[in-house]
Amino acid sequence: DTAVSQTPKYLVTQMGNDKSIKCEQNLGHDTMYWYKQDSKKFLKIMFSYNNKELIINETVPNRFSPKSPDKAHLNLHINSLELGDSAVYFCASRGQGKTDTQYFGPGTRLTVL
Amino acid sequence: GNSVTQMEGPVTLSEEAFLTINCTYTATGYPSLFWYVQYPGEGLQLLLKATKADDKGSNKGFEATYRKETTSFHLEKGSVQVSDSAVYFCALSGQGAQKLVFGQGTRLTINP
User: Fold this and answer.
1) Contacts of B96 in chain A (CB under 8 A)
2) Yes or no, beta carbons of A45 and B44 under 8 Å apart
3) DSSP letter, residue A79
4) Contact B15, B83 (CB under 8 A)
5) B29, B36, B66, B93: least surrounded by Cβ within 10 Å?
6) Closest residue, chain B, to A57 (C-alpha)
7) C-alpha distance from B49 to closest chain A C-alpha (Å)
8) Helix, strand or coil for residue A76?
9) How far from chain centre, in Å, is Cα A39?
10) Do residue B34 and residue A101 have CB atoms under 8 angstroms apart?
């Protein structure tokens, strides 16, 4: 069984469109994250939710809006897509312990044309 | 703030060579340290971790020791294989463990 899953795996769209990426985890974890990996492979945290509440928002533009309908899901909605949004977006989840590992999804490669 | 600096890549080695990828960190308190691996076209997988000073993480022949005195967590493997070709990320999780801070990644290529 897949622990952290993301859909879609690939997303190609035009500038100005609105798109969503979905993430689900079946690990029973309380905390979920979105990370962005740029073209140089650099990874940076975007958001984190704990039990459906936002706990980290790392100066991400307002066009990005995470939504957590329940603690097993954390979706990422992006409005008015820009060329610079092209990247690979990774979802992750973590258990409650302070030393617990973060488990990552397979990533969604977003290409904005 | 917390930060991680990794050895610049890319690194190219022959099969059965010894591998070291350097990683140093800056953090307040006592972070947990991780190595993640990203195989071509895939997501990130945890390779190993260490949660306190002098701990050694190990997995699949890879090892790294948490050195607080040198703020380092270097990744080593005694004999690399072609299948080890991937991008390796050093990361830390600060106290409170709310997020991972990653190094810039090191691309490793192993030639047969």
Assistant:
1) 98
2) no
3) -
4) no
5) B29
6) B99
7) 8
8) strand
9) 17
10) yes
By percentage, how much of chain A surpasses pLDDT 90?
Answer: 71
d(CA A4, CA A27): 8
In 10 A of CB B70, how many CB atoms? 8
Q: Which residue has the higher pLDDT, B1 or A86?
A: A86
Q: What is the mean pLDDT of residues B89-95?
A: 88
Chain B stretch 15-74, residues whose beta carbon is closer than 8 A to a beta carbon of chain A:
32, 34, 36, 38, 42-46, 49, 51
Give the minimum alpha-carbon distance from A108 to chain B in angstroms, rounded to a whole number: 9
Token output for A12: 């190609």
Judge whether residue A99 has pLDDT over 80: no
Considering only the beta carbons, identify the residue of B44, B51, B97 that sits closest to A104: B44
3-state secondary structure chain B: CCEEEECCCCEEEECCCCEEECEEEECCCCCEEEEEEECCCCCEEEEEEECCCCCEEEECCEEEECECCCCECCEEECCCCHHHCEEEEEEEECCCCCCEEECCCEEEEEEC
Q: What's the token pair of residue A25?
A: 């985890």
pLDDT of residue B41: 83
What separation in angstroms does the CA of A9 have from each of A67, A100, A106, B103? Answer: 19, 26, 8, 24
Chain A residue nearest residue B50, CA to CA: A99
For residue B49, give the nearest of B69, B73, B27 by alpha carbon.
Answer: B73
pLDDT digits (tens, 9 = 90+) for A22-75: 999 999 998 999 999 998 889 999 999 888 888 888 878 999 999 999 989 999
Which amino acid, B5?
T
